[in-house]
Fold:
Amino acid sequence: MGLGTETFLLAYPLRYITEWVMMGRMDAVLHALADPHRRVIVEALTTGEATAGELGALVPVSQPGVSRHLSVLRDAGLVDVRPDGQRRIYRLRPESLEPVSDWLLHRQRVWEQRMSALHTEVARGTRQRKGKP
Structure:
């Protein structure tokens, strides 16, 4: 028995729904970037647009494999594609990396604060062992 839309919206505030959606997007981006061949493709697109053939020449993968990699990148929102005659031109969508960047920045700040607090405690303990208040 599933929740109806009304019940779902009443049970979960919009903030939680938004976070859930953003985590899903972030998971898709991280999954897409987990593959080294896809990272090569994304890195190549940081310099500008490229055709599927040009991108395929960068990785030791068959053409159908390159198509699958490009499909995963497209589904994750990392790249856009536009037709140009019989070719497909791909471009990077750097804004799709923002949720991951924001999350990593938050994690970094949290760990920097924890490490700073640990450093303070260690210094305090060192001073106390030496007999200094």
